[in-house]
Amino acid sequence: GEDVEQSLFLSVREGDSSVINCTYTDSSSTYLYWYKQEPGAGLQLLTYIFSNMDMKQDQRLTVLLNKKDKHLSLRIADTQTGDSAIYFCAVLSNDYKLSFGAGTTVTVRA
Amino acid sequence: EPEVTQTPSHQVTQMGQEVILRCVPISNHLYFYWYRQILGQKVEFLVSFYNNEISEKSEIFDDQFSVERPDGSNFTLKIRSTKLEDSAMYFCASREEQETQYFGPGTRLLVL
Q: Residue A40 above 80 pLDDT?
């Protein structure tokens, strides 16, 4: 099955940019997602990118995809305290199953 | 904005008991999913459901698990005889023809 890896922790100062990285193994993946999970809450879809795109920007969020290296990143500009959460990278395979990374815990410090 | 809802938010049960976790997918969605997240571990796919039957299931989804769409709105996950290792957060998700899956808030199941 698909193997999705993420770094586990990221600490960032308020106002700085956060970059969360993800690697995956299945080159036939069609859609790649970022979900946000706040403490005790569900998975909130943040953004996604189709595999034929290199970049997608949505307000403070920028997703970069390097399909050759199977590397996905999420950049959050001007990180705020409300951005503190766990961020999951998820990859959709041809059989429409989502494979998740272990999640990156982002802590925003004042 | 329409969203996936799940009940209950928390469930505590004794080992060996049956539990039913309920989900109401987004109303025009056709594809339904259950995932689980054991504390501190990855979110794992359990099962997908379309047109009143299971499309795919993982090796986790053994004979103790079943899914049902008993009416036009609910989608349920039943665990017949719970084990300690079934303790997890269970997420329901749904999608329409497009690929993006939308998740519910989850049910936290604790088996004692």
A: no
